[in-house]
Amino acid sequence: xxxxxxxxxxxxxxxxxxxxxxxxxxxxxxxxxxxxxxxxxxxxxxxxxxxxxxxxxxxxxxxxxxxxxxxxxxxxxxxxxxxxxxxxxxxxxxxxxxxxxxxxxxxxxxxxxxxxxxxx
Length: 120
Fold this sequence. Notes:
Mean pLDDT: 80
Radius of gyration: 28 Å
Oligomer: single chain
Strand order of the largest sheet: 1-2
Structural class: mainly alpha
Shape: rod-shaped
Number of helices: 2
Number of domains: 1
């Protein structure tokens, strides 16, 4: 709502009021913020998941290198397959980060505090 004082001949103390429904705008803003919050969660989960998988794999490869068994080659091949999957997770992290930056740049949503009306 916008209220302005105006002066008319017949009523020098008149006012002009403009009222606009911004429900749709607030809902769109809420949706954008929720999307950014979810993207932030996804980015964090990608990083944690990749680290939680990579670290044990390095131990497995290290132990395999100490062995001369035939199965060592198979273990290293499987670790390499898993590493390829982790690279896909990394790409998901990069893609999510790019989407987040795009939304913030193009929708003027910078670093933000979650408004009280956002419940999740």
